[in-house]
Specification:
single chain; AhpD-like; elongated
Length: about 130
């Protein structure tokens, strides 16, 4: 008697393609902004429609228009530093590094943050910057 082969359960091609597309979206997003938060990764399976809407919106915001991606990233870093949001500052700095934004450009954006949001916001952003771009 021949042994019966057991095979792994195969996912339908449509689901496999959707998952691959989602994985590509997350990888692309991670290259832009740095580490993608766990709750956002979970949207891919818990609320895929919400995930797709957010990804479309994110793409619309970051696409070059009147402002370049690089300029938008500097604005995002300044806002995150002003909010003193550790995750956001870290993620935006990682994304900036991937876009080729220089440390001196970020320092200049943080000086604007200092002017409008005060010394604590500047120091907060500068400390994160020195950690990511020594």
């Amino acid at each position: 008697m021949a042994a019966k082969k057991t095979s792994a359960k195969k996912m339908p091609a449509k689901i496999t393609a959707a998952k691959k597309g989602t994985d590509n979206d997350l990888n692309t997003l991670e290259k832009k902004i740095g580490k993608v938060p766990k709750f956002f990764r979970e949207l891919t399976t818990k609320e895929p429609e919400m995930f797709n809407l957010v990804m479309r919106f994110e793409q619309h915001i970051w696409d070059d228009g009147k402002l370049s991606r690089k300029t938008k990233k500097l604005i995002a870093i300044a806002i995150a530093a002003a909010m003193r949001d550790q995750h956001a500052v870290h993620a935006q700095l990682a994304g900036a590094k991937n876009l080729g934004v220089t440390k001196s450009e970020i320092e200049e954006a943080l000086r604007v943050t200092f002017l409008l949001s005060g010394m604590p916001a500047y120091v907060y952003g500068k400390a994160q910057l020195d950690e990511i771009m020594p």
